[in-house]
Design goal:
The protein is α+β, with helices and mostly antiparallel strands. Helix content is 30%, strand content 44%. The chain has a single domain, classed as START domain (Alpha-D-Glucose-1,6-Bisphosphate, Chain A, domain 4, 2-Layer Sandwich), CATH 3.30.530. The chain has a seven-stranded antiparallel beta sheet, covered by helices on one side.
């Protein structure tokens, strides 16, 4: 794999319940909404261990394999555009994302953008789905 080893761990406060955060990370339709403009292939209705899917932004494709799904955490193994893993942990009012891997992509920048998009999505949807 070309690129450099990178790691980033970010935690933010969000105006959403644990359930809304979990559903936004595990339900395919919601994931597509806040991850836009990324496109997805083979994404299931709800992520389960063993599922695989591909996200793409332009010419960069990242394959995701769902390794762990628990009440408050999700772990994805990554390959192709990023060779590593992405972990999510959450609770009422907070969300944490940890990503490690080898990539040419600026992982911290992409992770920061995704967290802010998710925070915005949660603030606009949490009152409608509680």
């Amino acid at each position: 794999m070309l690129g450099s080893f990178q790691q980033s761990n970010l935690r933010i406060e969000v105006a959403a319940s644990e359930k809304i955060i979990r559903d936004s990370l595990l339900e395919g339709d919601r994931l597509k909404q806040w991850m836009w403009p990324q496109s997805f292939a083979s994404l299931s209705d709800r992520l389960r261990p063993g599922d695989t899917f591909v996200s793409s932004l332009g010419l960069v494709a990242i394959e995701h394999q769902v390794e762990i799904v628990e009440d408050n955490s999700l772990r994805l193994l990554l390959s192709k555009g990023i060779d590593g893993f992405h972990e999510w942990h959450w609770g009422d009012g907070w969300l944490q994302s940890r990503i490690e891997g080898v990539s040419l992509l600026p992982l911290n920048f992409g992770q920061t953008l995704n967290l802010f998009r998710l925070r915005q999505y949660l603030s606009s949807h949490s009152t409608n789905h509680n």
